[in-house]
Amino acid sequence: MNKDRYERNDRSSRRTFGSKSLVLVLTCVLIIGSAIGGTIAWLTADAGEVVNTFTESDIDITLSETLPDGQTAQMVPGCTIEKNPTVKVEEGSEGCWLFVKITESTSPALDDYIAYAITTGWEVVVPESNGVTVIGRIVRKDDTTKEFGILGAGEYTDDMGTADTGDDYKISWDADQVCVKPSVTEDMMAAISTQKPTLTFKAYAVQLYKNATTEFTNVEAWARAGALG
């Protein structure tokens, strides 16, 4: 009789242990299942993006002249001719070296007929050689004045005779004018019936800075403009 009691207790203990084991196994399975099928919440962050857009830059210039009409004028010895070539750096342009190449005809030689002067503010970059002179100036991006005349006031003494006769003749002119030399003769006029003397202006611009802090010199900048012809 006692033996039966002990046997029942032993079976009960085995059943109890088996139930707890089954619950534990199922719990583990559920935990593993959740880990496989669910979402693991790691810490994350998104800082967004920075987009850089690089825009264009440019230098834009114009060269204009309203006088003389049609860029042609009749020469009268001792008289002035209105002539107003003007160069402008357009708004929004980068800082630049602004150049003007001045070309005098050599056959016939303009210098035999016409005298003129360059207005203040320009500097000679290339001295006259074979009828060509180059002048230049700096124009900064934030300058308020960006339009410049080229021809200035001047005076000229023309040797119309010998030193002892006192035939020298002095003549002056204003800005935006050139002067016909008083010594021009009728024979000189006749000599240009087919080929006329000319005075030509051409404008160029080259960026001022070679890098963030260093400016081109006028000679360095002109070497780059010269490639334009």
Quick structural overview:
This protein is α+β, with helices and mostly antiparallel strands and 229 residues long. The chain has 3 helices and 14 strands.
Provide key terms for this protein.
single chain; 229 residues; alpha+beta; four-stranded antiparallel β-sheet; three-stranded antiparallel β-sheet; 3 helices; 14 strands; 21% helix
Descriptive account of the structure:
The protein has about 230 residues and is of the alpha+beta class. The protein starts with a helix and ends with a helix. The protein has a 4-stranded antiparallel sheet with strand order 7-8-4-14. Strands 1-3-9 form a 3-stranded antiparallel sheet, with no helix packed on it. A 3-stranded antiparallel sheet has the order 2-13-5, with no helix packed on it. It is built from 3 helices and 14 strands. About 5% of the residues have low confidence. It is elongated, with a radius of gyration of 46 Å.
